[in-house]
Amino acid sequence: MLSVCPYFHVHQPYRIKQYRVFDIGNDNEYFNDSSETDLNNRRIVEKVANKSYRPTNKILQELLDNHPGFKFALSFSGTVLDQFEAYAPDVLESFQKLIASGRVEVLADTYHHSLAFFYSVPEFERQVLKHKKRIQELFGVTPRVFRNTELSYRNDLAKWCEDNGYIGIMAEGWDKYLGWRSPNFLYQPPGCNKIKVLLKNYKLSDDVAFRFGNQGWESWPLSAETYTDWIHSHHGGAETINLFMDYETFGEHQWEDTGIFNFLRTLPHLLTARADTTFRTPTETVQSYNTVGEIDVPDILTWADTDRDLTAWTGNDIQRDAIKAIYDMEPKVLQTKNKDLIENWRKLQTSDHFYYMCTKWSEDGDVHAYFSPYQSPYDAYIAFMNALSDLQLRVSHSLTEREARAKERALKKEKLAATLEEVSPATVVPITVEPTLHALLSTWVSGLKKRFRSLLDFFHKK
Amino acid sequence: MKVLTFGWDFPPSRNGGLGVACYGLTRELTQNGVEVIFVLPRRQDVVGNARFVFADQARNVSVREVSSFLQPYHQAESQVHYIESFDADGRPIIKSRTIIEEAHRFAHQASLIAQEETFDIIHAHDWTSYLAGIAAKRASGKPLILHVHATSYDQAASQNVDPGIFKIECEGFAAADKVVTVSQFTKNIIVEKHGVPADKVEVVHNGCDTTEPVRYEPSLSALRSQNKKIVLYHGRITIQKGVDYFIKAARRVIDVDPDVVFVISGWGDMTNQIINQVGEMGLSKHVIFAGALWEEERDRMYQTADLVVMPSVSEPFGLVPLEAMQHGTPSLISRQSGAAEVLTHVLKVDFWDIDQMANKILSALRYPVMRQQMVNEGKRELQKMSWHDAATKMFKLYRNLLQYLTS
User: Fold this and answer.
1) CA gap A39, A382 in Å, rounded
2) What pLDDT score does B52 carry?
3) A73 and A197 both lie in a single domain
4) Would you place residue B80 in the very low, low, confident or very high pLDDT band (cuts 50, 70, 90)?
5) Are B102 and B187 contained in the same domain?
6) Which residue of A has its CA nearest to B255?
7) Contact yes or no for A313/A323 (Cβ under 8 A)
8) Are A271 and A389 found together in one domain?
């Protein structure tokens, strides 16, 4: 028995416009570029919706309708869901319909597609919670398997997931940590006893995600038949083939003219033509198999580049400077209790901003250049740091205001106390009330007090 | 292999990037075993500058001086020309007939030299030598390579292109067996404007010397002690160089941050106009005209500055950002330059985009981490841009040309 576990990651960041030094203190919109460039978020979402989301969802829906055995998983960043809602609501509806089939699992993630786990666990937890609520609200499901931004993974993240009730977590099946072992089984992180790790088969995944349309590749053009043979060849030596990739592989990274849509359309049928091959969602996969060993990942592992680490996001000085600057703001931003400021701060945590600042101009670098809407990594840094400077300014204004309001309140209190003291006790005329009226009044007052207290409690809990 | 080379400028003369390029290329070619006869239009020192020691190759290079009054960067020397009239913007239209006469004189001498010397190939650097190159080719029948360091379109910033120079360029490109440009940017110009077939043109990017320069005590200590930030322009003050755009950007910068000082090192036919512009825009307090700085003074200024700006309207290559990088200072350069094709770790801007030019100057000054990274990574990038590579490309070109002609 061999099962195939496809998982597609759906994400769009809020790209920062060419925010200038002159805009600091004058413009608190960082993401509203309206030019004809790739910094225009609405334009990008509309473009990718036409090239990828709409046609791909149509095919996926057909596959679900025609193949009762077809299953897969999706993960969404909160930032892409918000943008679908604003710019392409029909796309969101088509995803809702897919998920309503019950055969499409939704994974847990951070809301803002951030690297927060490695910089601030409390902030990470807030983003995961926010994401969970959003998924429940939109799709009516609760994620049980976790995947982190850029498939980033480390032992302590797995531990966190286990402690927080997740039954599975995804990671790159990277040779450095696997050694001679195969990614096509489930593994256990050290120090955990319940959670299982699903490892990406990067060879088979990247054949589709990266190499499919590459005419210089020895296996080009790749037919669904050949690919099926490759997967079937694992029978007997594997339990699960985990095919993890960006959703935008279909139509955006691999254009329609590469034949990617036909590939997707025919693959499920071919794969399940062999009776002992099935599709399984991540949760089913975790429930179907036992772990075969421990996988120890003490350093950050991601699905990016040939390095499979975070260097594409934090490899140079400007990236480290920018990421430090954003997380240094945490205590102050949260102190403002200002929703808008906190949301802007989180949008700036999206990993893509740091990716655009990458200067690894090797073979990998070309990939970065392709995916960056900025003309240079320095332009990306400038836009980011200028927007961040404005946010810092707004945060400090907000805190000053809060302080001023608090002072004012304290002053009023003092004044009141002073006036009360000024009124000497002799001048207070005792009020005599009828006993019955007094009793009535006091029960009324205590009732009021009670209600007020429960109201207070309620807000505290919130 | 023996090459008869025509040029007009050679270190240590103080004329800018072209002499530096001729020197770098010649030095590396001779190291490849190429014998170079370098013909200069007039007597000048060719040794004596410690940074450009040439002594060990002296046996391979014989410098011949030709009696001529040729001045490179002709349009920069407006006093030697006459002003014919003024254009709509009040800029003088300068005629350079005298220079063209000089170029003809150079060509006459070149014809004689070509008969005296033995060589395999002719290599002529920039337009003042094109006629000399053609004459040498006629006299000897040897193949001719013209090396384009600038065009009439660059020097005039596409306005009032000198028809006399344009004519010489067209004749030269037609007569040449191969044309070499210092950038794709320049190749595009001669393909588009002069109608040269694209396959006749090879791009050989300029190189760069990567020896670590001497560190000096910074200059402008009084300003530095007041925490002023220093933005440097270094180059000729001509319409080609876009200094007027730089001054407009300076105004935008000062409005946001009055603690910036702009230093202008250079001279040229637009100097008075720029001085007036600075006054009119109320920038006199913020702009320092340093005159043309050379050698130690120039290096010291490169090292003192926080940022160097090259705002050129049309720059065939542009060595300034490379020099600045060697001295540890990052640059903001115009996209309308050859250097922008090969440099990654600089800031880039369209010369006309005053707003972004000011934004990027201010941003560079605000974020020291970025400046440092641009220098650190930029220096590594310079290591890959040696004159050796340029000369190797040139050598292959010579060889191909000779093979093609003899077979």
Assistant:
1) 14
2) 26
3) yes
4) very low
5) yes
6) A22
7) yes
8) no
Residue in chain B closest to A387 (alpha carbons) equals B363
Range of the domain at B172: 2-207+386-406
Size of interface A-B (CB pairs under 8 A): 59
Residues A109 and A139 in one domain: yes
Residue A230's domain spans which residues? Answer: 2-310
Instruction: Return the residue of B nearest to A369 by Cα.
Output: B344
Q: Are residues B70 and B150 in the same domain?
A: yes
Indicate which residue of A36, A46, A125, A150 is catalytic: A150
Contact (CB<8Å) A21/B344? no
Tell whether B292 and B344 lie within a shared domain: yes
Are both B346 and B402 inside the same structural domain?
no
In 3D, which of B197, B199, B163, B149 has the Cα closest to residue B390? B149
- Do residue A322 and residue A223 come from a single domain? no
Domain end (from A290, A310, A330)? A310
CATH number for the domain that contains residue B115: 3.40.50.2000
Q: Please, which residues bridge with residue B65 across strands?
A: B40
Q: How far out from the chain centre does Cα B336 lie?
A: 14
pLDDT number for residue B94? 54
CATH number of domain containing A173: 3.20.110.20
Q: Nearest-CA distance from B76 to chain A in Å?
A: 34
Could you give the ipTM of this predicted complex? 0.86
The answer to the question of residue A454 being in a domain is no
Give the torsion sign (CA, A395, A397, A401, A407): positive
Beta bridge partners of A169: A146, A197
Question: Are A317 and A369 contained in the same domain?
Answer: yes
Q: What is the three-class DSSP state of B56?
A: helix
- Chain B interface residues (partner A, CB cutoff 8 A): 252, 256, 344-345, 347-348, 355-356, 358-360, 362-363, 366-367, 369-370, 372-374, 376-377
Number of domains in chain A: 2
Rg over CA atoms, chain A: 27
Contact residues for B395 (Cβ-Cβ < 8 A; gap 6+):
B29, B32, B34
d(CA A270, CA A211): 21
Number of folded domains in chain B? 2
Domain shared by A218 and A328, yes or no: no
Kindly report the number of other CB atoms within 10 A of residue B101's CB atom: 12
The H-assigned helical ranges of A31-151 are 41-48, 54-66, 78-87, 89-100, 121-139
What is the distance between the alpha carbons of residues B328 and B318, in angstroms, rounded to a whole number?
A: 17
Q: Do B279 and B237 fall within a single domain?
A: yes
State the Cα–Cα distance between residues A217 and A29, nearest whole angstrom.
44
User: Which residues, 6 or more positions from B366, have their beta carbon under 8 angstroms from its beta carbon?
Assistant: A21, A385, A389
Is A248 noted as a catalytic residue in this protein? no
First and final CA of chain B: distance in angstroms?
A: 17
Q: How far is A361 from chain B (nearest CA, A)?
A: 9
Interface test with B, best of A382, A386, A389 (most B CBs within 10 A): A382
CB B231 within 8 A of CB B357: no
Residues A141 and A213 in one domain: yes
Interval A272-318: pLDDT, tens: 998 899 999 999 999 999 999 999 999 999 998 888 999 999 999 99
Nearest to A359 among B359, B369, B377 (CB): B377
Looking at the DSSP bridge assignments, the partners of residue B36 are B3, B61
Looking at the domain assignment, is residue A455 inside a domain?
A: no
- What's the Cα-to-Cα distance from A330 to each of A346, A423, B366, rounded to whole Å? 10, 47, 22
CA distance B94 to B86: 9
The rounded average pLDDT for each run of 10 residues, N- to C-terminus, in chain A (462 residues) is 97 98 97 95 97 98 96 98 98 98 98 98 98 98 98 98 98 96 98 97 96 95 97 95 97 95 97 93 98 97 91 95 98 97 98 94 50 92 98 97 94 89 64 70 84 80 66
